[in-house]
Amino acid sequence: MGAAAVRPLRATGCDIAIDDLGAGSSGLKAWAEVRPDYVKADRYFGPAARQHDDFIITRSGRYLGLGRTVDLLRLLTAQQIQMAMYSNPLTGLPGNLQIQTQLSQWVQRWRHFVACHLDIDHFKPYKDEYGYARGDQVLLHVAQVITRISRRPVDFVGHVGGDDFVCLLRSQDWALRFSALVEELMVSLPNFHLPEHRCAAGFDGHDRDGGRRRFPLLGVSIGVVEVDGTAPVSAESVLESLRRMKSLAKTKSGSSCLLESRGRVIDLLASALPDEAAAHTSRFERQLSLLPA
């Protein structure tokens, strides 16, 4: 903060100044030249005074404008409220509106990405039998796994509602991350069942017609659509393809994951996977160790 920046500070009599300090610069020394009465940190940073102070905004010593702390706080609060309004109240993930906005932006910019729609199999009868609190734990777990394998801000994770999640992946290693996601959920979701249900590979519950029958353990049905960014597409067409692939995945027995890519449908779980949970876990840990943060 040189003399050229100090002069307008003196003229305005401001209480707060923000500057990108260069090497060898001393913000406290420069501030002492402007407001020697506010050099003490306890007076300068007092919470009551801070909300009503003005501040000078500079970049590399060049004056950009004058701002008020109270206005900045109001803006940040408004942004947080707006984000909360459109986020899922349980997981805190972006909701349907934000998902559609993000998808539209990527499509309009001709981005290469993969869109994923994940649905938890047999979640309704599970929630009816185990209770809403246990069902919420399952949803939080799935949200945490998806968030952990994604690479923000490159990737995007959203919660449509209920047991439906959407993720948009632009990471170049999306196939590796996606494989880690599927394998982790296949291993971890059965652990939310009672031991006797795991041993029986199913549980008794009510279907949508109210009848009592046996259901398999929790699993996932995932529809995936690759958007290569080489041809014009609309967000609506991507969502429609996602719905179609997810519905097709739901018709398969057990956990399933189907990818639509360049006009082909590929079963991503068709290759043989280790039968033992220990083998699954080992592969998952190795994959996560390879993923950049």
Please characterize this protein's 3D structure:
The structure is a single chain. The chain has 293 residues and is α+β, with helices and mostly antiparallel strands. It has 2 domains: 3-72, no CATH class; 89-290, Alpha-Beta Plaits (2-Layer Sandwich). The protein is built from 12 helices and 11 strands. The strands form 3 sheets. A 6-stranded mixed sheet has the order 5-6-4-9-10-11, sandwiched between helices. A hairpin with a 2-residue loop joins strand 2 (54-59) and strand 3 (62-68). Helix 1 packs across helix 2 (27-34) and helix 8 runs antiparallel to helix 9 (174-188). It is elongated, with a radius of gyration of 26 Å. It starts with a helix and ends with a helix.
Question: What brief labels describe this structure?
Answer:
about 290 residues; alpha+beta; Alpha-Beta Plaits; 2 domains; 3-stranded mixed β-sheet; 12 helices; 11 strands; elongated; disordered C terminus
